Amino acid sequence: MSDRIIIFDTTLRDGEQSPGASMNAAEKLRLAIQLEKLGVDVIEAGFPAASEGDFESVSQIAKKMKHLEVAGLCRASKGDIDKAWGAVQHAVRPRIHTFIATSDIHMKYKLDMTREEVLAATKEAVSYAKSLTASVEFSAEDGSRSDPDFLCQVFATAIEAGVTTVNLPDTVGYAIPEEFGDLVRYVREQTPNIDKAVLSVHCHNDLGLATANTIAAIKAGARQAEVTINGIGERAGNTSLEEVVMAMHTRPNFMPFNTNIKTEQIHPSSRLVSMITGIIVQPNKAIVGANAFAHEAGIHQDGVLKNPMTYEIMKPETVGLNANKLVLGKHSGRHALRSHLKEMGYDLSDEELKKVFTKFKELADKKKHVVDEDLEAIVTEGILRTEDTFKMQYMHVSAGTTVMPMASVQLEINGRSVRGAGYGNGPIDAVFNAIAQLTGTESELLRFSVSALTGGTDAQGEVTVRLSENGLIALGKGSDSDIITASAKAYVNGLNRIEYLKEHPLKEAQHV
Ligand code: KIV
Ligand code: ZN
Predict the structure, then answer these.
(1) Got the DSSP string for 177-227?
(2) Which residue's CA is the closest to the ligand 1 atom numbered 1?
(3) Residue of the nearest CA to atom 2 in ligand 1?
(4) What is the pLDDT of residues 197-227, one digit of tens each?
(5) pTM (2 decimals)?
(6) Binning pLDDT at 50, 70 and 90, where does residue 426 land?
(7) Residue 183 CA from chain centroid, whole number
(8) How far, in Å, are 70, 78, 212, 315 from residue 293 at the CA level?
(9) pLDDT score, position 326
(10) Mind listing the domains of the chain with CATH numbers?
(11) Contact of 330 with 368, CB cutoff 8 Å
(12) Which ligand is nearest the CA of 102, by number?
């Protein structure tokens, strides 16, 4: 049996189903480019039948990817499969990923279908998908809670109909590693034609066991792992790519498997996902959290100085940390900026480059070292967010120990400039009040947090806000070397995301 594990990344599909993690088409494309650089084998670019926007963005990604496989998710119905195929067909390597639930509880209450009907639908869907393309994946939704014998029967039917990958999801994050490993072993033993397909697993993290379950499954013979960057995804999230990959990388004796992942691209990918989705990585998150390589205790620090391996099981450089290169200085020209951005995956038009160059110069004047993450923030905020309803044009704040904080703000709303002012308990409160008044927002500010984007006292501050309006929740991010400006940008960004959600209701994409 091969020791190569196929890494199937679903950050753009299941990851996007995280509450508040909506991404626009340009952001998704940027992330897909980074995932290709990271070395994933397959990306699930979206769920094309969910909305026009999803369809468009999957087809854009499909056309752009150079060598990785691009999958489109679809239910086991002809209409959905047609949409998925329509979106991925121009990929160098397209994949249709169709699914149907196989647990008794899902079949009875969600699908209102019998086992026989599910078997027939599986056969029909896979045969149809297979008539369109060679690479077809079938998922047995809620597989871990399905009757194991029925699961094997469904997989056998799918394989008979031509599927190339069968996926066993732990949809509700219910499995326990030993039990899940046993189930994978059982499926391998009891599905007669299993050798004709790759066996995949897809775990959710409701009990915090997604990585452990995925590893148990790989040890039991699964050869594809479905994962997301930073473990984002529906509810408690999906298996995190970085954890599974680095576990195998760090413990080869126990797990003699290999992947195509360029581990030094892990940290840049994590940062990008966080920046685009607005979902902050918890500081103690394995591999990519801010504290993952920080040693606080004196004894530990002493040990690490003498020999890093005393307390570090991985080198930070291996996952792309400390790789913050000085990229460009304040004397760098437009040409150097363009070629560096190209290396990062941004192919900008002259007009876009002009905008980024102006922002870069402004930042280089204020900040000594401009690193990749700064450039990423400039492009993400200035270029990828083209569909914004609200754009900040100008902001002025007066505050101090003896004056009431006051802010005046000018926004562009639907192409028209509007100006207003607001008072507040502090300068940020004043800016937020002015913006709220101008936009007429009914949203509530649920959370506000500030962190430093890069090290040093001249670091850019990064502000994250969490907003809620009529059941819609959105995160907004903004960065600037001035914390009040960063806050204003984050607030405007959050409001734009709420507007985006109003037009693209998440429910449309929430199929399971
Ligand atoms: O969790 C799940 O079951 C899924 C399937 C569609 C693969 O996301
Ligand atoms: Zn899932």
Answers:
(1) HHHHHHHHHHHHHH-TTGGGSEEEEEEB-TTS-HHHHHHHHHHTT--EEEE
(2) 171
(3) 171
(4) 999 999 999 999 999 999 999 999 999 999 9
(5) 0.81
(6) very high
(7) 28
(8) 34, 49, 21, 9
(9) 53
(10) 6-277 (3.20.20.70), 334-382 (no CATH), 390-503 (3.30.160.270)
(11) no
(12) 1
